[in-house]
Design brief:
- By secondary structure, the protein is of the alpha/beta class.
- It is about 35% helix and about 10% strand.
- The protein has helices at about 5-20, 55, 75-85, 100, 130, 135-140, 155-160, 165-190, 215-240, 280-295; strands spanning about 45-50, 65, 70, 85-90, 120-125, 195, 245.
- The strands form 2 sheets. Strands 4-1-5-6-7 form a 5-stranded parallel sheet, sandwiched between helices.
- Helix 3 packs across helix 10 (about 280-295).
- The chain is globular and about 65 Å long.
Length: about 300
């Protein structure tokens, strides 16, 4: 009989997730690193700017090149840039929302859109989940006991009480922010090819309680919410003269419930170097290859 997850492990991992809601404070003893990472010194290489949140930044995947943003040198923008032979300026930052594209994140991280140039040839945008507070929603769905039973109710019931789906409403409110961001990208880099990139798969149908402490119906609800977000992102991309890259489909068998070694997304207790409920190095490698194949030649 499977054992229920330990409460202490849940608390630790939930705290790790909460820490990603805002960028980490940089270690004052560390050597500052540039937000711009070039795959080649050649000026002939097309300029590529990666914008977005932790799904692209790669928190806790070594090596972390920017401790303020928990950004990895093995994230999917770096993988895609290497395959494309592009000169990468990576300003993805853990905890970023659409507001942080034009604003200063946590009062100290420069606006991501400032990395764009008139000669930028390629832009990827991976953002939206933090606007909807999906990380908080996920941790609120943790259940250490089987159910629902008695006073315990599903987290879907909590988010849809009164006939309103609050997460769906947040997605609707986020849509115009994606449109505005794409407009700003077009204004600053009018010649660039722009790609809106989805999130990966989190849960297989029915989830995998108790290995991941989310009841089956809630695992399905959370994945449906991510998929609703993906639909909105695809629609906003089409309306904003951008292309959409789907990471959900290729990662469908590699979410948090997959066996170790087949997992591209880590769960509550990561088995590889990655933040909980974030892509691991393998996931980043596959995502980068998918993005590079979709882009072709920038």
């Amino acid at each position: 009989m499977a054992r229920s997850p330990r409460r202490t492990a849940s608390v630790v991992a939930a705290a790790a997730l909460a820490a990603l809601a805002t960028p980490a404070t940089a270690d004052p003893t560390s050597t500052p690193t540039s937000a711009s990472t070039s795959t080649s010194a050649s000026v002939q290489n097309p300029h590529y700017v990666a914008l977005g949140d932790s799904s692209a930044a790669g928190p806790l995947i070594p090596l972390q090149t920017d401790l303020s943003c928990l950004r990895s040198d093995r994230n999917w923008p770096a993988v895609a840039a290497a395959r494309l032979g592009a000169d990468l300026t990576d300003v993805t930052c853990s905890g970023a929302t659409t507001a942080d594209l034009a604003g200063r994140q946590a009062g100290r991280v420069p606006p991501q859109l400032d990395a764009l140039r008139a000669d930028t040839a390629l832009v990827t945008l991976a953002v939206g989940a933090n606007d909807i507070r999906l990380g908080t929603a996920l941790t609120s769905c943790f259940r250490l006991h089987p159910g629902p039973v008695g006073p315990l109710r599903t987290c879907e019931a909590a988010y849809t009480a009164g006939g309103r789906d609050r997460l769906a409403e947040r997605i609707t409110r986020t849509a115009p922010r994606i449109t505005a961001a794409l407009g700003q990208i077009r204004h600053r880099s009018p010649q660039a090819r722009v790609y809106v990139v989805s999130y990966g798969t989190y849960f297989r149908p029915g989830g995998c309680w108790p290995e991941e402490p989310v009841w089956p119906s809630d695992a399905d609800y959370l994945q449906r919410t991510f998929d609703r977000l993906h639909t909105m992102l695809a629609e906003r991309a089409a309306a904003g003269d951008a292309d959409y890259i789907d990471l959900r489909t290729p990662s469908a068998r590699h979410g948090v419930c997959a066996a170790r070694g087949e997992r591209w997304m880590e769960g509550l207790l990561p088995g590889a170097a990655a933040a909980p409920y974030h892509p691991n190095g393998t996931g980043m490698a596959h995502a980068g290859a998918t993005v590079a194949d979709a882009v072709g030649s920038p």
